[in-house]
Write a structure and sequence with these properties.
- It comes from Aspergillus granulosus.
- Keywords: Ribonucleoprotein, Ribosomal protein.
- Belongs to the universal ribosomal protein uS11 family.
- This is Translational machinery component.
- The protein is an alpha/beta fold.
- 39% of the residues lie in helices and 14% in strands.
- Helix 6 packs across helix 7.
- The longest helix has 19 residues.
- It is elongated and about 130 Å long.
Length: 227
């Protein structure tokens, strides 16, 4: 009974017995034979939009060369005028960076102020020594090498040797490296800021401290107590 009713209904309504098919889109309904005109229309619209964005002539061809005016304007290669504030800012930055870019490597004066002696060493930028002297080179012996007076005379003698040997012609920048906090350090500062260092302190570009600090480690010897 059911099969007879289904066959009768299929004959009466032929669309019921057919499988469902996807519905064609609106564009395919309007352009059922070919999609080429539709793609061409979309391409023309995109080209027109690109011309408007780039600010070029609408009759100019669209391609790789069309983006050159926009790129030139972005990179600053075009003929567009630049504001005075921007130009002044660039000049200020170049003026600040240029001295550091052309800076000559510095010579070093190492001042080792030990509790028993003072050693002053002048080195080239690569670290090779040019001059090295201690209080013992001036005739001080044993405990006399640790005093303020011996370090004062040593610093004055080293500055005189630098000028007599013509090393000032070679030195353009000078860096002072301290090590230790004993009397020799104060004596060297006194000479550098005094009349003996008038030709040398103008070359100083940097002052640093390389004093070694102890963190933990082995136990230090007991302090020596006299009396």
């Amino acid at each position: 009974m059911n099969s007879t009713f289904a066959s009768a209904l299929a004959r009466a309504l032929p669309s019921v017995g057919r499988q469902c098919q996807p519905r064609a889109s609106f564009f395919r309904q309007t352009r059922a034979l070919s999609t080429t005109p539709l793609l061409q229309a979309r391409k023309t619209e995109s080209q027109e939009l690109e011309r408007q964005l780039l600010g070029g002539n609408t009759s100019a061809p669209i391609g790789d060369n069309a983006t050159e005016p926009a790129l030139k304007s972005i990179m600053g290669g075009g003929n567009q005028s630049v504001s005075r504030e921007y130009t002044q800012m660039v000049k200020d930055i170049e003026a600040k960076i240029q001295p550091y870019a052309d800076q000559v490597p510095a010579h070093h004066i190492h001042v080792y102020a030990h509790k028993h002696n003072t050693i002053i060493t002048l080195t080239r930028p690569n670290g090779s020594p040019l001059l090295s002297m201690s209080c013992g080179h001036l005739g001080f012996r044993k405990g006399k090498r640790a005093g303020y007076d011996s370090a004062f005379q040593l610093s004055s003698h080293v500055f005189a040797q630098i000028q007599e040997r013509g090393l000032l012609m070679e030195i353009q920048n000078l860096e002072i490296v301290y090590r230790g906090f004993h009397q020799g350090r104060e004596a060297f500062n006194k000479i550098l800021l005094g009349n003996e260092g008038r030709n040398i302190r103008g070359l100083v570009t940097k002052v640093s401290d390389s004093t070694r600090l102890k963190f933990g480690g082995t136990r230090s010897p007991r302090p020596r107590r006299l009396g």
